[in-house]
Queue: 4 jobs
Job 1
Amino acid sequence: MIADNKAIGKFFDLQKKNYEKCLHVGFLCEKKPIRAHSIQNAKVLDLLQENNHVLMPLPKLTPDKEPTIEFCLVGRNSASTFTGLCSEHDAELFRLADNEPLDVKNEEQLGQFAYRAIMRELHTCAEAAYRFQLMHIEAVKSGEAKQNEPTAPGLLAVAFWERGWRVIRYRGSYFDSPMAKGKKPVLGHHVIELGGQKIAAIMVSLTTDDSQNDKMQIRMWVGDDARHLPLRITAVTPLGPVRADLSIAPATSQ
């Protein structure tokens, strides 16, 4: 669907509406959240930046074309940031992730990176739901929609709140509950065989917006060396299980 200038204007106005809430366990913290990086600024972005800018995917809307995603230069201090934790809880949770060089053999640091990725996803869902909810409220106020009737933005808000709830349940099951008991999150390393070679790999699970959670069972194995090559992808489709392997595997680890 092609968007008109008015719709484009509303879309970009919405992008200025930030969801600012400390999403620490229990959601009781009332302290003002900070704009924190989900990717290390001093350690990782410093390697990627040029003239203090990095490439980031950003949405592009024009009146005569379908929405697209383009890679644009973004100031490193704004790249990968989100307002989902106060300064106290951010420092408490991500001390190793923020202050130490990346060490793929440090399980505690890897756990912090994984937890931060989940926090970023939770905030993304909450912020999208918040923005669509504001759009629904504005449509009712302006008379474009009736108060007790569903609107497209209203339905999207519900969908994103539901998705956020799934992220909360995942965080609680795999991170918050074990950590409350003094246990470390379970981060597994796998060894897969490609071309007769056994290669250490990290498995990443990907979920979709389907109401049947993890219906497609998407899994990706990333090499546990300096390059982190995607070695294998598996999924379950209507036609059955599928698997794609990297055809040229590294002969030695690096």
Job 2
Amino acid sequence: MTAKRQRKAIARELPPVCTTMTATYKGQAFTAEIVEAKELPAGRGVRYGEEIFSSLSAAGRAVTGHATNGWKFWQPAETSEEQTLREEPSQVPTGQPSGGRRSSGMKT
């Protein structure tokens, strides 16, 4: 009889405490937060609604009603600095002349 191969446990820690996580499911936005939870083995948990879950996957299951890969489902919310950088127009020149007509390269 062959011995069963043991699976390696993947150590995936939760993001730091106070990290806000967001998800979109069926067009609706959801928010969760990483909080201290001394009663959990990792010392941190995911607060979604009134409950604290031990993993992102468990919190994702509470949203969807079925098993979910929490690391793919939840994304860290953008900080205000990241959002500002994304929304501000780039100051990098585009190589196109501003205003005037573009030359087609043909002589008239």
Job 3
Amino acid sequence: MRRRSLFLILLFETAAASGATLNVYPLKIVLSRRDRSSSVSLTNVGNEQATVQVTVRKWRQDIQGTDAFSDTDDIVFFPKIVIIPAGQKQIIRVGMRTIGEDPPVESAYRLFIDELPLSQKVIGVRMTMRLGIPLFIGPTRTTKSGAIDSVSVRNDQMTIVVRNSGNSHAHISSMTIIALDAKRGQVFRTDRRELYVLGASLRAFMVKVPTGLCNATATVRVWVDLGGLQLYKESPRDAVCVARPAS
């Protein structure tokens, strides 16, 4: 399980530094008609008790990868607030509220685990933890399909649009971009790793490139590993360069 599937937000507050530290497992949950429930284990490996609040939100992304969250009652979970003594473990049960027809496309959620601040007020800086675990309700049978829709360069920014045509989320484990000159010499290369492309959606990835790249480039090649599906696109300069700097 990749730890990159979990994002961490640190919120600063006025209080003392906490001695509570949580280990969380698993870092992703996938539910379906076949696997209708799961659980999350929270282990307090710190030296102070931790108070934790659990919530679930519907999760959407736009083409730029900006997250949007909304209320939902699709998921049941308990307990919602727990106190975990130092060295102890708490199990959070998670399940689908209703079992309907097999969905054509996966739905995405985040299970948020928020550490609540200590009640006592002490001068200092305190960091409280927020974890957002990806949670998916998907079809029993998943499909894989995708493409690199477009590659474009405007000034010093390259945009690669990846299409996930499959019915479930896919993780981009690698993305390689190479620009070649007219003699097939390499003038630019970058390797990236990203997070999720949700099911049946588009995602645009921005890459900073050297100013004047288009003047030196004849061809751009892009390789993407989309959840094990290998994608490739080769584009000539005239198809890629939206606004080339003047020679």
Job 4
Amino acid sequence: MISMFSPRSIKGVFVEDNQATIRILENGKSPTFRHTDKTQRVNLSWLEEQFKRRWCKLVHGPSMLQAADILTKPFVSAEKWKLAVKLLAITPTKTVTPQKALASATEAVLPPSTAAPSTGGPAAKSDTKRLIVEVCCHPESKLSQTNRKWSDGCEVLQFTKEFDLNEVENQTRIASYVNPFKGDVKPLIWISLPCTGGTPWTYINMQNPNAREKVLKHVREFDRLWISLKSFLRMLTCKVYYLIQSLQTQ
């Protein structure tokens, strides 16, 4: 989406509460952090160039307005803690009556209903208003629990380990149900392929023969699933929504 705009039409604003860090980014060098280019792959000279191009703006902001501090720093002051929580828009929950709590608990222990495609093709339902297709999921995923009140009128189809996405017959089976679907909204294709994009640890793992083979196995698995996914999407003749979620693999 960013590629639709000219480079200088959008300016990112980075708010930093540490004056020393601002000086380092403005100068592009620091004797204390001279190792970061090799260990963390953070190039200070490159960062300096980006700010000099004025595509991004670096400004100083007070520490009390840094919302992420609640995740990285200890708090000894109750007032500072309340402010930090407020920055994350976390507010006290509403008081729940015993009757509502009992009803909620009863609903939580009901056995989840799993989608039919995991074991066979779904049967058409007259009251189906929404349709979700989960790509690469567990048979008892949260989305498949259509017995909850907010899932009323929603049907979930699944590609699981057993109902394999790589099987063309399974792709055709799901597509034949999605294409003629007439509901209140367009069907949603929820895609959650395993992530093989890698992290800085991948560079280290590739140095070990056993770890390297595991990494390459994940890559081959992703490539195969991606090809199968494109094959399935080409079978869809109706308009749908897409949502892609990346799942980190170890």
